[in-house]
Amino acid sequence: MAARKTTKKPNVSADELKKYYRDMLLVRRFEEKAGQLYGMGLIGGFCHLYIGQEAVVVGLEATAEEGDKRITTYRDHGHMLACGMDPDGVMAELTGREGGYSKGKGGSMHMFSREKDFYGGHGIVGANVPLGAGLALADQYKGNGRVTFTYFGDGAANQGQVYETFNMAALWKLPVVFVIENNQYAMGTSQKRSTSTPDIYTRGAAFGIPGEAVDGMDVLAVKEAGEKAVAHCRKGDGPYILEVKTYRYRGHSMSDPAKYRTREEVQKMRDEKDCIEHVRELLLEGKHASEEDLKAIDKEIKDVVNKSAEFAKESAEPDVSELWTDIYVEDTREDA
Amino acid sequence: MPTEILMPALSPTMEEGTLAKWLVKEGDSVNSGDIMAEIETDKATMEFEAVDEGTIGKILIEEGTEGVKVNTPIAVLLEEGESADDIGETSSGGGESSAKKDDSGGDDDDESRGKAEPVAASPAAPVPQPDASPDWPEGTEMTKMTVREAINAAMAEEMRNDEDVFIMGEEVAEYQGAYKITQGLLDEFGAKRVIDTPITEHGFAGIGVGAAWGGLKPIVEFMTWNFAMQAIDQIINSAAKTNYMSGGQLGCSIVFRGPNGAAARVAAQHSQDYAAWYSHVPGLKVVQPYSAADAKGLLKSAIRDPNPVIFLENEILYGRSFEVPVLDDFTIPFGKARIARPGDDVTIVSFGIGMTYALEAADKLAEEGVSAEVIDLRTLRPLDYDTVLASVMKTNRCVTVEEGFPVASIGNHLSAVIMERAFDYLDAPVINCTGKDVPMPYAANLEKLALTSTKEVIEAVNKVTYR
């Protein structure tokens, strides 16, 4: 693959770089495996892969602290792996098994982890934006200094409730980082054809929310911008918008014939801008890792992913009694 | 071991496709993500990418082949160090031979589905066992209170009890409530806990749900339920469904409340009863009180409930006074109807403002010697079927009363349940008195006709008692 010009020396340690490499590779290999299982009929329904966008979640997770929250839309596998959720549980949810994060009742688009402060996984485009602001409102109410990362796409950025939320988040100075993952296509509609002004990050200006565009194929640039945004929120200065310019290599979902863009366009991004290749080069050029070291990481990731696929196939389908559970939270109050 | 590459399913419904074109040939090396072939289905042509890296050892299905079944081996991939001679000892897709679609044709699929599906039935309906316990101890001191005061008191008491309870909505704070329901709350609890929102129902309903997931107990006031249609996606898709979709991890303790149904002379967009709409949705609890005591006791239960509660009030009832027990902490449980007036000849079931017509009709019927039992459902989900069924089994006749539209109404649902569980007890068909099947008109005379009425209830009772 052609080398990408690295404009500046990375301001991170070798260990951090290796961690980003590993985390991004985990997302990519996991998604490739998910695509494969889908092809075999083991995963049903919709399945939206994150391949190409890995630097976004890995760069931002590098800025998160214990207790910070994250919420996203339906292209959510990468967010879950990046925040430390167990690949076994994610894959088993994709196959609709009892070992999945939602016991097989949510599927690809609806997974959650209280433990990792991951609040979904939402199938309605744009709906997670006020939900994320609400999580931030709860943190502000409690005064705990936590920040919520609210991810959505360039497509969701045209939903009305996003702007309702911008207004209230700015008005009440909610500690929320709005991360617009602009992968340039809302399903099959390019940004040019759907969005009146190209720079989505400027849309917060009307509400007094600072925003900036970030190279989403560069994990270090994402991390740097994320640190600034998080500091702004934690200080109590209100929301911040990051428009992260990224690219998805695969179709919108598995059943996407991808006639809205050329094969050359995709290949060019893969060859010239790939986020994993970028960190790989930084590691090798900086002599932070040898080819053998990286091969060992590749092997380690492959094993993790294969194990998750095995788990997802072997885990049983949910017991039929699960049909009737979790509709309501049991009321444990004494006077209930 | 060489790996078989299988014909992929490109959509959940795909069973076979055409291998339109190979983009690699035998001897080519591929990396994961490389496009290997084009597959054509009846819907689209899709590119098929490599998952594993290796060398194409053999192509098993030539390009142009039609009707290739999903999961048929189409090529063999060799790993480093393997040669074409190793082919023969293949494993499918890297050990993934347990694919479920490869062993049966399309038709068998349907057959096995029919056989294997376990039936998960609703629990069987037992004999009705109504809970007739009193709502408060006999001899409790009572005081007169309007529904408005009762709702206000319920919120204030719960906000005093629990720091996590807060209220948000349009004009709830400085204006003291569009209908003065939140009067005085800002003074007592401050702007942090009594939050004026912009006019932005969709957005603040979503923020409320997020805040509930974040550990708070929001009360979200809609100025009227008509405006909540802007927010219905957040109420249903986010608040009601997420506990189920998360396998029980993300309950949502939130109350959505405000005036519901027709007020007076505000026409179609401002006059609609949402009782049946929300009662349709698993994951929600739905409450529609009539009296002040019920409004107070049920709202306190709603605020404490760990689930999303739809609390449907009525503008016309806000100013009406009722007896309310003087107790430090009094709640009414969900799923318990109230027999507002005992009787023997006919059961009249209603809720909310419908109770006005039901009770007035019962008074007039009593004058004519007909003894009507009037049941106030109070909560619509969970619904107290047992109290209704036990009453119908006693009176053998039933009339339901509500202001909502007639199609798929609460009355329709009750009629079906009564037919199913008390068919042999019925001496007449159940009649549903409802609002008319028209948008609410503005003109005073037409508006009156569009609602149900005491007269209609009496006529219905006369019909089911064959008088």
Automatic annotation (TrEMBL), chain A:
**Protein EC:** 1.2.4.1
Q: Which GO terms describe its biological process?
A: pyruvate decarboxylation to acetyl-CoA
Pfam families in the record: E1_dh (PF00676)
Query: Kind of enzyme, top EC level?
Result: oxidoreductase
CDD domains, per the entry:
TPP_E1_PDC_ADC_BCADC
Q: Where is the Dehydrogenase E1 component domain?
A: 23-320
Keyword annotations of the record: Oxidoreductase, Pyruvate, Thiamine pyrophosphate
Check the record and name the InterPro entries matching this protein. DH_E1 (IPR001017), PDH_E1_Alpha_Subunit (IPR050642), Pyrv_DH_E1_asu_subgrp-y (IPR017597), THDP-binding (IPR029061)
Q: Does the keyword Ion transport apply?
A: no
Q: Does the keyword Nuclease apply?
A: no
Q: Which Gene3D superfamilies match?
A: 3.40.50.970
Q: Which reaction does it catalyse?
A: N(6)-[(R)-lipoyl]-L-lysyl-[protein] + pyruvate + H(+) = N(6)-[(R)-S(8)-acetyldihydrolipoyl]-L-lysyl-[protein] + CO2
One annotated GO molecular function is:
pyruvate dehydrogenase (acetyl-transferring) activity
Tell me its cofactors.
thiamine diphosphate
Assembly and interactions?
Answer: Heterodimer of an alpha and a beta chain.
Question: What does it do?
Answer: The pyruvate dehydrogenase complex catalyzes the overall conversion of pyruvate to acetyl-CoA and CO(2). It contains multiple copies of three enzymatic components: pyruvate dehydrogenase (E1), dihydrolipoamide acetyltransferase (E2) and lipoamide dehydrogenase (E3).
Q: This protein is called what?
A: Pyruvate dehydrogenase E1 component subunit alpha
Per the UniProt entry, what species is this protein from, by scientific name?
Roseovarius atlanticus
Q: What is the lineage of its organism?
A: Bacteria, Pseudomonadati, Pseudomonadota, Alphaproteobacteria, Rhodobacterales
Q: Which gene encodes it?
A: pdhA
TrEMBL record, chain B:
Q: Which Gene3D superfamilies match?
A: 2.40.50.100, 3.40.50.920, 3.40.50.970
Q: Which GO terms describe its biological process?
A: pyruvate decarboxylation to acetyl-CoA
Keyword Oxidoreductase in record = yes
Region (Disordered) location: 80-139
Q: Name one GO molecular function term.
A: pyruvate dehydrogenase (acetyl-transferring) activity
Needed cofactors, names only, are: (R)-lipoate; thiamine diphosphate
**Lipoyl-binding domain location:** 2-78
Question: Mind listing the UniProt keywords for this protein, alphabetically?
Answer: Lipoyl, Oxidoreductase, Pyruvate, Thiamine pyrophosphate
Q: Which InterPro entries match?
A: 2-oxoA_DH_lipoyl-BS, Biotin_lipoyl, PDHB_mito-type, Single_hybrid_motif, THDP-binding, Transketo_C/PFOR_II, Transketolase-like_Pyr-bd, Transketolase_C
Top-rank lineage group of the source organism:
Bacteria
Enumerate the SUPFAM superfamilies for this protein: Single hybrid motif (SSF51230), Thiamin diphosphate-binding fold (THDP-binding) (SSF52518), TK C-terminal domain-like (SSF52922)
Under Pfam families, the record lists: Biotin_lipoyl, Transket_pyr, Transketolase_C
Catalytic activity of the protein: N(6)-[(R)-lipoyl]-L-lysyl-[protein] + pyruvate + H(+) = N(6)-[(R)-S(8)-acetyldihydrolipoyl]-L-lysyl-[protein] + CO2
Under Enzyme Commission nomenclature, its number is 1.2.4.1
NCBIfam families for this protein = PRK09212.1 (NF006667), PRK11892.1 (NF008854)
Subunit and interaction comment: Heterodimer of an alpha and a beta chain.
> Function of this protein?
The pyruvate dehydrogenase complex catalyzes the overall conversion of pyruvate to acetyl-CoA and CO(2). It contains multiple copies of three enzymatic components: pyruvate dehydrogenase (E1), dihydrolipoamide acetyltransferase (E2) and lipoamide dehydrogenase (E3).
What name does the UniProt record give this protein?
A: Pyruvate dehydrogenase E1 component subunit beta
